Every structure is written in C-alpha cells, then in structure tokens.
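Methods: example folding runs. The two proteins below were folded one after another, and each record is reproduced exactly as written to the output file, sequence line first and structure-token line second.
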Amino acid sequence: MLRPSLRRLLPLALTAAPAVGCVGLSGDMEAYSPGSETLEPATSSSPSWDGRPASWAKLIEIEDWLAGSDRRRNERFVGEAELQLAEGRLALSRREVSRLDGDLMTLRLNAAKAGFQRALARSDLDPRQKRRAEKGLQELRSRHDGLYREARRSSGLEIRTRDRWGAKAPVAARLTRRTQPWNRITVHHSAEHSRDQGSQTAPEVADVLRRIQGFQMRERGFGDIGYHFLVDPKGRIWQGRPLEWQGAHSKGPNNVANIGVCLLGHYDLERPTRASLVSLEELVSALGQRHKIPRSRVYGHDHWKATECPGENLSAWLVSYRSKVAPPRTAQ
C-alpha cells in the first residue's frame, strides 16, 4: 500500500515546497527477502520514538524507522509504529485544522485511516492495540467531514464536499495520482442549459452532479468525475475529484498539473449568473494564490482543443479575468 511521505503532509508554513501535502506518494516499501542480507540481533529496547507526544518530528522519525533496517530487526514494534503514526496524524490534523487547506486535510485523514487499517491487518496486535486502532477508525468516521468543512471555512471559501451531493466512490485503478505541483487551471461549462437543471435547489444540483459523474464513469471509463470543482448558477461551489488525483477534463497530457473547474450551464446559449461568476472568481483566485498559478495560466477548454467549451459568454469572462491585476499575495 502506498504510504504518503510525512514531509509532504507538513503545514505550508513549515516547508518551501509548493502545494505541499498534495504531491506524490512514496512508493511501496521493499519486502525483506530472507537471506538477502545478514540481520543484526534483535534489540530489546523500545525505539526512540515510542511514548513521545505527537509532533511532526516524531512522525517523520517513525516513518523513517518503518522504511529502514531497524524495522527488520524489531518487527514486533511495527504494529505499534503504525498505530502511533496514524494516531499522530489524526491528533495533529485536529490541532492544525484552522491552518489547513481542505484537500490537505483529506489527504492527512486518509493516510491516518490507511495506517489504522494496516495495523488491524497484523496478526501480532494485542487486544489493547486493536482497541486503539478501532477507536481511531471510529473517530475518523465521525470527524472526517466536520474537519474537512472546518478547514474549508478557514480558507475563506465554502465548498460543498462530495458527501453533500452523494458522489459514488471513485475507481482508484482508473485514476492517475498527481505527481507534480499544479501550474494551470482550465475552466469548462457543462453544456446543459441551466433551465434544464430544475430550479437550482441544492438537491437538484446534487442530482446534476451525480448524472455527470455517472456518465463520465460509465460512458467514458473515467475513475471519477473529471472536474476538481463545479460551480452552480446560484454560486455554490462543489467538490469534484479530490486534488490528490490528476483530472480528466482536458484530454491526455493536457490534464497534467491542470486543475479542472466546471460552471454548470450552457454559455453559448445563456449568460453566467452574477452569483456564479463571483464564486468562480473567488475559487480560481484562491487556487491561484494557494498553488502560485498566475492569471495568465487560467485557460478555457478551447485553449487545449477545438471545442465550443466553455462557451462564448464564459470565454469573455476569462479574457477579463486574465487582464486584471491580481491582488497582493497574503502570507502563507
């Protein structure tokens, strides 16, 4: 199972790497093959990280321990290492929620969940350790959405999470994990007139999103909805494909490092509502600031291929947006 590197899950203020927490996952650890090396005698003392309070320094030390030779000499501590790593990720996510981007929060919580699951899969856990792993999973189930929403609110944007529109679980085997920082944004329209989407209540929009996801997964073979964010005519912003995954909205290599944003409506046949354009600008500006994407690299779908998308009326907004002087960046 892939293990996210903790160095990529650190808060933005603690690292200079762009888009930290969302890029790349370290590879599977190589399994030990008997006879491939001479093992040193097992040590009886606990590893240096055992029992210390949660901190990023401690969690990085545990991750290094799990990837190194000490793990092979002290296999009986592996279950405890997985537990303390997962518990630490959960505890630090709770502690730092006001500083976290929602997608970074999701990545951290998913990593904690995977750690608890790896621990429970081991046959050498004692009953107390099993209870800790089960308690951790229970807390993740009860707190995940609340922590995600709180992280979103702290970024100044309200983004409705996938559970709010009843998204299907993605098919991971069909997805491509993001491997480099985001460096461009592409704006689309859904090419369905807003009058055909009902009165734009939240439940009706949720139904539209499920239909888009279902079509793209069923007819196009996508692993999930292709866009990372969608904006409805009432100005509500909805989470699409999580940013840990490359999108499927601009065909082939054009999707690499490219955040996909879709405005619901047909903007050759109608004009975007003021509410939708306000939210679109806030979203695109926040993404640009967060990932250091200049306005000159915010495109329409027609930049990448011969298509009417995102429609003449939305293309006019894009021209205006790119010509504006961006506000000063706030301190991260």
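Second run, written to the same file directly after the first:
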Amino acid sequence: MTNTVKDNFVVTLDYKLIVEDEMMESTEDGEPIKFIQGIGQIIPGLENALYGLKIGDQKTVVIQPEDGYGEYDPESLQEAKKEEFSEEIPLDVGTFLDLENDAGDILSAQIVAAEEDTVTLDFNHPLAGKTLTFEITLTDLRPATKEELDHEHVH
C-alpha cells in the first residue's frame, strides 16, 4: 500500500509559488522543502491540500488570503521616528527590519514610506491579502521520527 500524506509524516515538496501571475519563489534550482505535516509548519491552505497525496503526485493549489498569510490589515501600519533606529540601518522604502517589541517578541516589518524625520512600518506579511497559487510535486514521504516530532522539525 502506498503511503499518503497524513499528520506526523515528513513531506518533501517541490513547488512554485505564483502571485498575481508572477512567480515569487521556486525550488526548481535548489532543494525541495521538507516539513512535518499537521503541526502548522506551512500555511494552512497548503497543508490541508496535501492530505491524501502520494509520492509523485502533482497538483495546483489556489489559496485564498484567509488560508494563507491572512487579510491585509491597515491597522498594522505604524509610524516611527528615524532617531529610534541605529544609523547603520538604511531607512529606505522597501527595507525589511526585524524589531523587538516590549514583550521581547521579534516582529518583521517593511518600510513602506519615508519622510524627513519618520518612517512608516508595515507589520503585515508581504503576502497578506494575496491569493497564492502553488504548483506542487510531492517527491518524498515518510513517517517522522520520535526525535523529529519531539523537536518539531525535520532532521
């Protein structure tokens, strides 16, 4: 009997991610991705689409924002004074920053506007609000080891 994708299996996947008719990323010239199915290591819409697939299966999966990186939230824009940043950081539109909040969590933001004394930071994921199209090929599948499950990543 051929194994099919189910929870606690290590899935190896080649993929192309297409957003608004533009290829955003691909494993074509690199390594496929490996992850443990069912523990939230990939976006929910893609994870749900994999159940039941077997090695060699190919599929195109269209994922709406709510099952991908969420809807775009205009409340996630925040203005900050340039003087709050180290002088070594380029405060240009398009720059991505990892910032620590008061609770010690690291948050990623992109500078979306720069004025003389301030920058506007967007804490939305860059693919928030976007419909994602994945072209996938399942290349390998095996049960995760106890150690992989305990550590919640593939070894």
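Comment on the second run: The chain is about 10% helix and 40% strand.
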